[in-house]
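Appendix C. Worked example: Isoaspartyl peptidase/L-asparaginase-like isoform X1
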Amino acid sequence: MWCYVTGSVTGVKNILHPIALARLVMEKTPHGILSGDGANEFGRRMGLPQIPDSELITENAKHALEKFLCEGQDPNVTEIGGGGVGTVGAVAVDARGHMVSCTSTGGITGKMKGRVGDTPIPGSGGYCDDNIASVSTTGHGDSILRYCVAHRILHYIEQGLSATEASQKALDGMRTRVGKTAGAITVTKCGKVGVYFNSPKMAWAYIRGTKLHYGIYPGQDIEEDLAQS
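Step 2, the predicted output written as structure tokens:
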């Protein structure tokens, strides 16, 4: 029998490792999502390390906010293409065929208080299924959320598309239907990797055996042999 488990947190503050907190939600609670003060309180009970605001507020973030406030910019800008804050995601399949998807984000500059993006919502910012694949996305979170991008990618893979083909179909479909841009990293249950983004850039990397592949711009795929490093 297959068991689908998920854990996520949203609206948390000063957590050094939010993905570790999300995993504890999955493993130690009967719930799928915890938010705000409740999630922070749970993290403290679990003994997770915390950090002060001073270590979380970067100069780049302050400049981005100042620019937003002065110029009245659109908070809907896809920041992976604009050099602002970003999202960190990882996908993997282990030797037993179990899949995992992990994603962490700081949101978008200029977001409203209380805004929840795609990252903590299963099927939007990330999703995995041992029978199909694992996906993690980044980009304009509200568009990803509206189009359920991660779930669509898995659906297209289940229909027979490759990881890259499925990602391209879902992300280009999102841009056509709801606007904005995004990217995704995907690994199938057989270990096939897919990388696609329709934003100007997205940093990505993966390892298969001793070979490291990475890039940041469209069409870029740099390979290094770690055995010779």
